[in-house]
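Bug #2210: C-alpha cell dump truncated for MFS transporter?
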Amino acid sequence: MTDTKSASGQPVVHTAARPGLTLAAVAVVQFMVSVDLSVVNLGLPRIAAGLGFGMIGLTWVIHAYALTFGGLLLLGGKIADRYGHKRVLLLGLAVFGLASLAGGFAQEPGHLVAGRALQGIGAAALSPAALALLTVTFPSGKARVRAYGIWSAVNAAGGALGVLIGGVLTEYAGWRWVMFVSVPMAAVALALAWRGVASAPPTAPGGRPDVPGAVLATAGMSLLVFGVVRTDQYAWTSPVTLATLAIAVALLAAFVHVERTTGRDPLIRLGLLANRSVAGANSYNLLLGAAMASSFYFASLYLQQVLHASPTVAGIELLPFAIGVIAGAAVAVKLGYRLPLRTMLVIGGLVTATGFAWFGLISADGSFLADVLGPSLVTSVGFGLCLGPVVSAATVGVAPSETGTASGLLASSRQIGASLGLAALGTAAHARTGETTTLEGLTEGYALGMTLAAALLVGAVLIAFTVLPRTNAASPAEHGSRDLVPEPE
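Reproduced locally. Full output below:
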C-alpha cells in the first residue's frame, strides 16, 4: 500500500495489488527498449539492400529512433506524472508495438524511418512511466533493492543480447524480423501491465501545461542529439556541427529561463536538481551511459574487424558481458542491504574503470580468450554493480508527483551520455587510427577508446564521492521528503 497525493493535494491510498506482475512488466519493457537500441545494427547492410537505402539515408534508421527517444524523454516523464503512470505506459506500449509492426512491413526507406521514429516516441513515453511505477511500487527496503537489481540486469542483458538477436534474425529469418521481434514483447508487457499494475490517480498538479517549456526542451534535446550523432558525417569543428550545437544550447538555456519564470506547471521543477542525490546520480549516469555505449561499439568492432568474427559469432562472444552484468546486479542486491548508495557507486565505478583499462591493452594479434573475455567480465560486473544503485539514487527523496519527471531526466541523461560518448570516443579512436586500415591501426584506435572510457568512469567515481550524500539504499527517505537517511555510523 502506497500513500500519495492526488492533483488536488489530498492524500490518496492506492494498492499495488500485484507488485510481482508490476516488476515483470517493467522488466519486459526495459528489456524491449534496450534490445531495440542495438538490434538493428547488424541488419543495416541487408536493410539497405532490401529497401534501397543510400549510405547517408541508412544512418537515419538509427538516428530516427535516437532523436525521438532522446528528445521526448523529459516530456514523456512529465506526461506520465500528469496523466497517470499506468495510462501512459499502456499508451506507449501500444504505440511502440504498432510502430514495430509497421516498420517490419516497410516497403520503402521512408516507411522504415517513420516506424523507427514512432518507436522512439513510444519508448519516450513508456520508459519514464515504467521506471516511475517501479519507484512507487517499491518505495523502500529490501524489496526496492531487489527490484532495482532485477531492472539493471534486464537493462544491460537487453543491450548485449540485442546484438546477438539482431545478428541471428538477420542471418536466418530476414531483416524484417529485427522490427517484428519487438511486437510480441510489447504485447506481453501490455498484458502484464494491464493485469498487474494498479490504477492510481495522476500525482502531478493539474495547472496550466507548460507548453513553451515542452517545446524548448524537446527542440533543444533533439537538436543536441542530432548534432552529436551527425558527427559521423560532419566533423566536430565543421560549421554544420557547431551551428547545430550552438542552437541546441541556446534553446536549452531558454528552457531553463522559462522554467525559472513560468507561472505554469513547469515541465521540470528546477528545485528538483537541488536534491544532491538527483543531481549526482544524473551526472554519474551521463558518464556511465557514455562508457556503456562505447563498450559495445568498440568490442563489437574489435571482434569483427580485427579478430574476424562473423556477426553471429561476435554476438555470441558478447554474451559473457550480459552474464557479468546479471552477476554484478545480483551482488549489488546483496551489498545494497548493507552499503550506502554512494559506496556502491564508487565500488562499481572503480571495477568498471579497471575493466576498461584492461580492454585498453588489446592487441592486433590477440584472441577472444586472451583479450576480450577477461576484461568484458570485469567491466560488465562493474556495470551491474552501478546500474541499480544509480537509478535508486536518482529517485530517493523525490515526491510522487515528480517520479515520472525524475525517471525521464535519468533516462535522458543516459541517452545523451550515450550519444555524446560514442561520438566523442569514436572521433578520438578514428583520429588515432588515421587513414590506415591495418589491424594494428584499428586496434590502437579501439584501445584508445576503451582507455578513455576508463577515464570517464574515474570521473563518475569522483562525482559519486563528492556530490552524492551518504544514504542507505535499504532505507531511503520516504517519497516527498527532502531529507535523506544518513549512513549509519
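Output looks complete on our side. The CA atoms of residues 175 and 372 lie 28 Å apart. Marking as cannot-reproduce; reopen if the truncation happens again.
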